[in-house]
Amino acid sequence: MQLLLGSYGKLPxxxxxxxxSLQSVKLPAGLPSQILxxxxxxxxAEHALMAANANIGAARAAxxxxxxxxxxxxxxxxxxxxxxxxxxxMWNFIPKIEIPIFNAGRxxxxxxxxxxxxxxxxxxxxxxxxxxxxEVADALALRQSLNDQISAQQRYLASLxxxxxxxxxxxxxxxVSYLEVxxxxxxxxxxxxxxxxxxxxxxxxxxxxxxx
Length: 212
Prior knowledge:
The chain has helices at about 40-50, 55-65, 80, 105-110, 115, 120-170, 180-195, 200-210. The protein is mainly alpha-helical. It is a lipid-anchor. Keywords: Coiled coil.
């Protein structure tokens, strides 16, 4: 599965412009955060760490949260949300260094987070990880908002279709003027357009989950 990897996989096929085009690509529940390790930006940061003689396994254990990104279908997990402060949005994850990250130097210094952060490669690695998780959290939150908007508009569209059918039936029996039919048609067409206008943000959101 190529979403969230930062690679350019196959995006959904182009579809006829209608409300069915609003159907999002489904993300499985329990999607592991390790999938983010395949993003080019994180891979680049890890290569920089290796060039500085770092133990990548130890660096991941210290700085990379091992969680599930999704809970329900296409929704962010509570573990992902808890990585950020609810009010400020700041990174909440506290690194825990149990194994020396750098092979050279004193082991005790290698276990001290302040000492480790003096290495620019470590700072860069930590920032790339934070950015990756933030991008995913933001994209999933927007995804949920868009899905909610689509569901509401689809329910409204269904009710307007019934209203139009009734207006046409009443007009045929002479109970209302044709203006009633025209008003119902205008409302229906406007709601269809609102749904179609959601196609672009839905597709942009999907692309944001494919690329960093």
